[in-house]
Design goal:
Blueprint (H helix, E strand, L loop, with lengths): L5 E7 L3 E6 L4 E5 L6 H4 L5 H4 L3 E3 L2 E3 L5 E2 L1 H6 L2 E2 L1
Antiparallel strand pairs: 1-2, 2-3, 3-7, 4-5, 5-6
Length: 79
């Protein structure tokens, strides 16, 4: 099933992302479980983490780290 289009992302405390979708939904996604290893571990640096942006219907950081759109939508909590 397709999820609505992601319009914006805002970094929040505790390595969480506020996601806003075209259907008016706002969701919180916890990135903490993803922050490990050499590549995703770079996101532990808060300045790096805060540089998240919307890219290709998903989120992406400057280093190329991304999370699949379906994971963002289905593994987040509505607010």
């Amino acid at each position: 099933m397709l999820q609505p289009e992601l319009l914006s992302v805002s970094p929040k405390e505790g390595y969480k992302l506020l996601l806003s979708y075209e259907n008016g939904e706002n969701k919180i996604f916890d990135v903490t479980p993803y922050i490990s290893g050499a590549w995703y571990g770079e996101l532990k640096d808060l300045e790096t983490f805060k540089k998240v942006r919307v890219s290709n219907h998903s989120v992406e950081w400057e280093g190329g780290q991304d999370i699949a759109p379906h994971e963002l939508y289905h593994n987040s909590i509505s607010v």
